[in-house]
Automatic annotation (TrEMBL):
Residues the record lists as 4-aspartylphosphate modifications: D57
Keywords: DNA-binding, Phosphoprotein, Transcription, Transcription regulation
Organism for this UniProt entry: Streptomyces cinerochromogenes
Location of the HTH luxR-type domain: 148-219
PANTHER family, alphabetized: TRANSCRIPTIONAL REGULATORY PROTEIN NARL-RELATED, TWO-COMPONENT RESPONSE REGULATOR
Domain Response regulatory: 7-127
Top-level taxon in the UniProt lineage: Bacteria
Protein name per Swiss-Prot or TrEMBL: Response regulator
InterPro entries reported for this sequence: CheY-like_superfamily (IPR011006), NreC/VraR/RcsB-like_REC (IPR058245), Sig_transdc_resp-reg_receiver (IPR001789), Tscrpt_reg_LuxR_C (IPR000792), WalR-like (IPR039420)
CDD domains, per database record: LuxR_C_like, REC_NarL-like
Length: 221
């Protein structure tokens, strides 16, 4: 990503908010190659420009219900190489689960209040562009609620904490700082999660992403 602008297609029906986000992203090293006010315009923009990331408001015209997230799911199916970062006023767990289904990588889901925090928003964009996962803490919390016994039940409370922070996109160093433990301790917890989830190292698989997806899938209800 060095010396290359992050290419973004931005879908937001509010012209004022859209223009503000374009200016914000431009100032933070991103290139908004297309903007869209409807789901159809979003799909066309992604096909034409093949961006690194599509930033999508869940609620778009004409009904302002789920047009944006439906378009995001379609983009994921058609062009899985394009990262998807959706944002919303509220958590839509059913659609979040669908977007994350199938072992997808390069997915983000933030609440609008998180998008307003510029550094967090841009950091999430880069994580998604690089094939990672960036989930709002509230999304993680709601999707974790389940009830049936799963592999997640084998985790210790500390391992769960570490995995939840992984789901939010934190690195081992960041997790260590947040939990006030050593980075080596975090590495041991992460290794324990991989072991309990039976995630073996390969040359191509991102075990962190797979661990997060397993966690959400088994706790999404």
């Amino acid at each position: 990503m060095i010396n290359r602008l992050l290419r973004v297609v931005l879908a937001e029906d509010s012209v004022v908010l859209r223009d503000g986000m374009v200016e914000l992203l431009g100032a933070r090293g991103c290139e908004v190659v297309a903007t869209a006010g409807t789901a159809c315009e979003l799909l066309a923009g992604v096909v034409e420009h093949r961006p690194d990331v599509a930033v999508v408001d869940i609620r778009m015209p004409p009904t302002h219900t789920n047009e944006g997230i439906r378009a995001a799911v379609e983009i994921r199916a058609r062009t899985p190489e394009v990262g998807i970062l959706v944002f919303s006023q509220h958590v839509e767990t059913a659609w979040a689960s669908r977007l994350l289904a199938g072992g997808a990588t390069g997915i983000g889901y933030l609440l609008k209040e998180r998008v307003a925090r510029t550094s967090e928003f841009v950091d999430a964009l880069h994580r998604v562009a690089e094939g990672g996962v960036a989930l709002d803490p509230e999304v993680v919390t709601l999707m974790m609620r389940g009830g049936r016994r799963t592999r997640v039940d084998t985790l210790t409370s500390r391992e769960r904490e570490v995995l939840e922070l992984m789901a939010q996109g934190h690195s081992n160093r960041s997790i260590a700082a947040l939990l006030v433990v050593s980075e080596r301790a975090v590495e041991k917890h992460v290794a324990a999660v991989f072991s309990k989830f039976d995630l073996r190292a390969t040359h191509t698989d991102n075990r962190r992403v797979k661990a997060v997806l397993t966690y959400l899938a088994e706790n999404g209800g």
